[in-house]
DNA sequence: CCGAATCCAACAAGATACTG
DNA sequence: CAGTATCTTGTTGGATTCGG
């Protein structure tokens, strides 16, 4: 009986670490998840909260919707309103966000001491 | 008094999420941290555990060493041996790894149901 | 207001060959 | 064994423009 957590990087959908790494890579996913973890937000709100261009935000949100992390709701109003929320599996991501916040702050402290 | 967790993406070293995202972006950091979290490993061991080329692994390890996540120890033997271990702040990253493992497995389940 | 389309710059990462 | 050097490729993200 071997240890076998995950051996190859080719196993998206098998190893939790490989899977998560694929989803989190890139420059924005963690930040968007963090924003939406605080509640539903509109496109423009997200764009201002994070410093990101329209085109980039748009493609990121589309990708995350396809991956099942977020939901997009269109309200047929004038002017049009589009709201983004977390899916069930997206909401569960809060445990990762919490540990990232904790560790991130520790790392920031480490940076200060080093400097 | 505003909420203010982190508003702009330009604040590396200020916001824990922005900082962590910068460190974790790319395709390999989480996987390497996971491997080293289980104990010290040699270059060749890492290369086999993860499916990664020499050149890529080498540059990743160098970057992570500069960021203070890992330590590199050279044993002047023949044949040469180099061992990688986690630094103190690197070891603390295990809380993030644990939550990623948990959530990653949940996401894998979600994928199965969806399919 | 939201976001799609296009084009392009920057960077990440793989293949291969070579060194102490 | 543990890298480095170089070249090439693939992927991301940004600027700009246009449409519903």
Which structural traits does this protein have?
DNA-binding; 3 strands; WH_DNA-bd_sf (chains A, B); 12% strand; globular; alpha+beta; three-stranded antiparallel sheet
**N-to-C terminal Cα separation of chain A, in Å?**
46 Å
Percent helix of chain A = 55-70%
Major pleated sheet of chain A:
3 strands, antiparallel
Measured on Cα atoms, how large is the radius of gyration of chain A? 17 Å
The poorly predicted ranges of chain A are none
Largest interface: A-B, 54 and 53 residues
Mean pLDDT of chain A: 90
**Oligomer, anyone?**
homodimer
Which strand order do you get reading across the main beta sheet of chain A?
1-3-2
Shape of chain A: globular
Give structural notes:
- The structure is a homodimer of 115-residue chains.
- With 115 residues, chain A is an alpha+beta fold.
- Helices cover 56% and strands 12% of the residues of chain A.
- Chain A has six helices and three strands.
- Chain A has helices at residues 16-24, 29-37, 43-49, 54-66, 88-92, 94-114; strands at 41-42, 70-75, 81-86.
- In chain A, strands 1-3-2 form a three-stranded antiparallel β-sheet.
- In chain A, β2 and β3 form a beta hairpin.
- The longest helix of chain A has 21 residues, at 94-114.
- The termini of chain A are far apart.
- The relative contact order of chain A is 0.11.
- The model of chain A has no long low-confidence stretch (mean pLDDT 90).
- At the A-B interface, α1, α2, α5 and α6 of A face α1, α2, α5 and α6 of B.
